[in-house]
Amino acid sequence: MKSLLFGFLSLVISSLAFSQEYKFSPIYDIEATEVKSQDITGTCWSYSTSSFLESEIMRLTGKKIDVSEMYTVRNTYSKKAWNYLMRQGKAQFSQGGLAHDVMNSIRVNGLVPEYAYTGLDTGKTKHNHTEMVEVIKGMLNVYIDNPARTLSPKWKTAVESVLDVYLGEKPASFNYEGVQYTPESFLEMTKINPDDYVTITSFTHQPYNTSFILSIPDNFSNGSFYNVPLDQMMDVIDHALKNGFTVELDCDVSEKTFSSKTGVAVVPEDSADNKKAAKEIVAEKTIDAKYRQQEFENFHTTDDHLMHITGLLKDQNGTKYYKVKNSWGTKRHGNNGYMNMSESFMRLKTISVMVHKDALPKALKKQLNL
Questions:
Q1: How do residues 201-234 score in pLDDT, each as one tens digit?
Q2: Of 98, 162, 104, which is closest to residue 134 (Cα–Cα)?
Q3: Is the pTM of this model over 0.90?
Q4: Which SS3 state, helix, strand or coil, does residue 325 take?
Q5: Could you tell me the pLDDT band of residue 88, with boundaries at 50, 70 and 90?
Q6: What is the C-alpha separation between 320 and 156, in angstroms, rounded?
Q7: Short-list 21, 19, 22, 25, CA closest to 314
Q8: Neighbouring-strand partners of residue 352
Q9: How far from 176 is each of 11, 36, 57, 111, 124, CA to CA, in Å?
Q10: CATH superfamily of the domain spanning 21-367
């Protein structure tokens, strides 16, 4: 009996000894703007990339500017409508998008500050694009299904009118800090050049060190991704952060071990640890290219959400985590709206990253002919 009691106590003590709540300390922490909420919209791609651009503007000019996410969204809906109609409804028309859609938009339409274009009706404080998207899609389907098979030239004006009603008319000019700007001259002032940014990914179904169009639902604009080995993709993130560049992230957040409540995302080695992993350190899986590809091809890793990597941390055991700014607000979300993602999670669940080309390691930059 004594030996059984001793064994039980030993087991309890051992369990307590290895139960460790997360304690994080920063390695790199790069300045970013305040966390926002995308509200009831699927526009994380614009919120995260706008946040990324805000950090880039601080790096390039020292100015802290609140960029309008909805100005980019407004312009991108027009492009999505064209794509959907020209493909006669055989394409996706939704609220989603990717980081390169922001770059495509500002290249043509420029950039504006938040106060110059909020995308909100007077008196409204939260965004909700559900009705608007269904109205536009329904209108486009009417044009597509027209029995006369002759497309009315009025369709563009009709779509733009709906966007104006729901999001507001786009400003031709505005005053910022006592200076009059157009969206194009404002972009020039920020020193952002959309051609300076590249998207990096890592998949084995395409050759490394080449670019290709990644087949994911939100890539409606057929953006190209540079494909590199998994270790090199991770090196890109680390090298950027080490040298003062933040990183735009496209990833999967559908896992049960992505806990926005506690602000932690990990990949437990044993699924029995899934619940515990939200608060305590657990052993994690080793992620290689083969397993990463498998999880992508069986749809366990999907293009769910875009966020903004602003730093690197470590826990008390020296394990690396990435500090990731989310766009779900700060209420009911841990770490004031930020996530701490383990290296294993990042290796497995990252779809792609976008960085300034100067943030790339020199060898990789040469390798990709950039």
A1: 999 999 999 999 999 999 999 999 999 999 999 9
A2: 162
A3: yes
A4: strand
A5: very high
A6: 49
A7: 25
A8: 250
A9: 65, 21, 15, 12, 23
A10: Cysteine proteinases (3.90.70.10)
